[in-house]
Amino acid sequence: MEQALPLIFVAVMGLSLLLYVILDGYDLGVGLLLPLANDEEKDTMIASIGPFWDANETWIVMGIGVLLIAFPRAHGIILTELYVPVTLMLLGLILRGVAFDFRVKAGAAKKAMWNTLFFLGSLIASTAQGWMLGSYVTGLNDSVINSVFSVLIAVSLPALYIMLGATWLLIKTDNALFEKAVGWAKRSLLPAAIGLFLVSIATPLVSDVIASRWFQLPNAIGLLPIPLSCILVFALLFFILHKPVAQLRQMNAWLLFAGPVTICLMAAIGLAYSIFPDIIIGRLSIWEAAAHTDSLRFVFYGVAITLPCILAYTVFIYRVFSGKAEALSYD
Amino acid sequence: MEFDPLLLARIQFAVNISFHILFPTISIGLGYFLLFFRIRFTLTGDPTWEFIYAFWVKIFALTFALGVVTGITMSFQFGTNWPGYMEQAGNIAGPLLGYEVLTAFFLEASFLGIMLFGKSRVSNRVHLLATAVVALGTSLSAFWILSLNSWMQTPAGYGYADGVMVAKDWLAVIFNPSFPYRFFHMLIASLLTASFLVAGVSAWRMIKQVDGPATKKVLNTAIIVAAVLVPIQIWVGDLHGLNTLKHQPAKIAAMEGVWETERGAPLTLFGIIDEENKTTHYALKIPKLASLVLTHQWDGEIKGLNEFAGEHPPVAPVFWAFRIMVAMGMLMLAVSWWSCYRLWRYHTLAGFDLKVLSAMTFSGWVAVLAGWYVTEIGRQPWIVYQLIRTEQVVAEHGAGTVLSSLLAYCSMYIFLMISYIGALRYLSDKPAQSLSLLHEYTPATSTEERN
Question: How does B294-328 read in b/e, with b if 16+ C-beta sit within 10 Å?
């Protein structure tokens, strides 16, 4: 149990952060796409994420919470090092979260301003997250080459979020907006693919530890499905999205949304393989950083009971609000 | 100019948590009001309760959103500002925060969706349940965070292993000596804050003659709730104070401005605190009253600040914050009882009464902030009382970094506060019915096409 607990918690943390990237990723993506839509479409786009965004955002609190509970030393070090991007991300998330409500409650005159702030908040938050990921992967030291790498991820992550957001809109909208969303999804493919490709190439270059983990036989062969499935997903999405829109309308759009989700999943697996068993690459392993076993056990019971419940009612909420988005109404 | 990193970190944390607490304080209390409105509608079928709900749920949604986003900031601030705290006490603080996320955050955030937007998609029963879950979720969240805060004030159930703190007895940690008092004091404070907000906004709407009968109904509800709760709050506050005297006498000494230990200590109503010369100038004192209030004996002994040299909080802020909180409480008592009397006598409120209530809209915020300053500044110089000093756990950021992020937070918060009050004003001037029209833009699809 003593050895297993840090493993369990690192898995829970990974799962939470993965869910965060997928779930808040699509609503941040919708925020990033907002300026491209007309006023009426903006309302529908916001309506498509209305009932979900709050719970989506809770997954990052969960992820950071687990880091704090299970690996308090790493929590302190990581958040101290990432002070600037974390602050920016928080300011972005604040702006976006409140713009959501203010845009319909502060009066029609201010709606345009809150729409802009919703976009800006989404942009700041998603680039800051990319920056955080970049610094984290490079072991939290800011040499020039590492900073360039962080900037690279900082611009790639929003592209991935846009892919998630555009395909989410395919599930949630129809008519003209659906057609627009197809266009957005198409255009997001190339930047996201280039971003992912560059990040994959750069990661082993900036980190010897990661390079040694990936480029050794036979592991390298076992890892091949990760990049291959990403290439496959991009190719499939490219092929499908270029079909006539009328044909796309007949499709189950969840399958299209599954595309970027698969990419997130693969990236997460790749990242987990790169980092494990460290919690801070090359500096601190999960065993060294782990909290006291009694504390972990105490929280483990809570996780074991509540996490299935959380997942269950999350599914319930998604079912209640399934189907195309309607105007948000409190009635 | 030289900046003290500890002071900057403390100011930043104080700014963030002060701004944050304003919104949960409202939503914890307002959640129960909304539940009450929904239950009343379900039982009576009276549509005015639906109007009331339709109006207040919007303010709830706005307030809740502000609470969520500023709360996310808090979950990071522990690490960015006080990494040493998490290293030393993380084994205890972490799990308590973890249980808050696991049992409360997801629950609130998920069912809020149904509560706000699901009325046409689920049955009334499920919607009522969702409203109840959100209300309970906010209190559950308060339960865990107040448990942790109370543990920092009155640590219990801990031991040491490998040089850091660990829990020896989780029940003792969670239900530490000051927790029950602080929890109920805060819950009632939330309900009172919400009552005065509801009463204040409704009084404003009465003056503006918006939504006639519905507004009157909700105004009366809020006034009665306040009139019942204020005395209970004063009683609970007294119990809380006695508990503090037992466990944190230095805080009490600062609150009362008692410089030297004495029997039959007088109660200082007002005075100018002079920390350098350890005296209170122009003090207005009532003989023996402090002893009577705190020990319930005329000649009870009150320990003075002289007994805690170097280990007591700064006196003036604690002394003043305490007086502001108490004064606000007395004002709330007077206003709620006066309004109740007028209601009983004339069956409706008008003119001056409404203006007073409207002026009291945010009185709960003032009392809550003042109360938290008493308890938090009153704990200094400790982060965990008598175990870990705040200065030992502060992060080593450059003053420039902290100062610029502090400025960014401050400007953001000022902007948000102006927008929040502005939105409240805007919503208050409109009838609840037309509010729902705000959302009636053309749906993306007709109902038939929906899956």
Answer: bbeeeebebbbbeebeeebbebbbbbbbbbbbbeb
